[in-house]
Amino acid sequence: MQCEKCRSVHKEKKPINVLVRVIVSKGKESIHTRAMLSGTIKKGDELVIDDEATGEASLVQVISLEAGDKRMEEAPAEDIKTVWARAIDEVLVKIAISHRETTESIEMRVPGDREFVIGDKIEINDSKLKIIRIKIRGSGFKSRKGVAVRAKDIKRLYADTGFKMPKRISRASGERVVIKKRESVWSLKSKKAE
Question: Looking at residue 73, what DSSP letter applies?
Fold first, then answer.
């Protein structure tokens, strides 16, 4: 291959296929397997791994690499001792549902490529929930309406039932007063031009 900078021809090394130990996290369980890898592997790479026990292939994302005695962001396959990965073909999305004063946590198993859009409604257990914010894995939050995030990239999804409980105020006597929302009794009227 000719170098673009110096214009001399260099021999290119062919990638070597090596058998590497892979530990795949699937929900609460870990699957130990081996995979043939070549080239440079990086944190965040997506790989297809065959499960020796079941014979099924699954799509995984590299979380961490161990080369020698160190954790690395990237390494050549021949130097890698262990690849830690998480299954992303089907993922468990954690959902925090706000009920004004309390928050309920639930989980939902979905395909990793399913998109969730902030502002959209999703239906879970006969309840319609509005997505208000999404925490991204290894990053911050997304809360702008219309932003889409794939399930495999979601750490936690925040949703609201849309049902608002009346505000409660405590008086000095210890008695609690409920303030109910009142419907408006007036309306804006437009002035007709004369």
Answer: S
> Per DSSP, what are the bridge partners of residue 76?
40
Strands 80-87 and 18-26 come out as: parallel
Question: Residue 4, Cβ neighbours under 10 Å: how many?
Answer: 6
Instruction: Please tell me the distance from the alpha carbon of residue 41 to that of residue 39, in angstroms, as a whole number.
Output: 6
Q: Is the pLDDT of residue 172 over 70?
A: no
Q: Which residue has the higher pLDDT, 177 or 86?
A: 86
How far apart, in whole angstroms, are the C-alpha atoms of residue 180 and residue 159?
23
| Burial tier of 19 (Cβ tally within 10 Å: 0-12, 13-18, 19+) | exposed
Residue-wise pLDDT tens digits, 35-72: 888 889 999 899 998 766 677 788 999 999 998 888 98
Residues 161-178 as b or e (16 or more Cβ within 10 Å = b): eeeeeeeeeeeeeeeeee
- Amino acid 131 reads I
Cα 44 → chain centroid = 13
State the pLDDT at residue 126: 80
